[in-house]
Fold this protein.
Amino acid sequence: MWDWHIYIGYVLVGLFSIRIILPTLGQMKFQNPFTKNLTVKEKFQKWTYLIFYICVLISLVTGLIIELGPKELKKPMEEIHVLGIYYLVAFIGIHLGGVLMAEFTNQKGIISRIISGKKIEK
């Protein structure tokens, strides 16, 4: 089981690296909470994603230090790394709550569009 955790961690490091590189190539937008004229809802969404990315980065870096770093850092990095489950559970809860709120308010059909991948026709 531990081996799977490590392999998935390496995959996540690669995927996270791609996610960070793509906006620099103009292929994907980065959620900027400092953009002017944002609604409170949009600012909350963008701040949530920014905090999530920072927490994921911390988890990935601590995981890499646990695996590849000096042995004297292993214990303190494990303590930080284990805390990652808390932000992950909180983010999933906030994310699902936001999707459900959007589904039942101003973005009807968002769940089926997420699943099918179809864009909104305007």
Notes: The chain is about 70% helix and 0% strand.
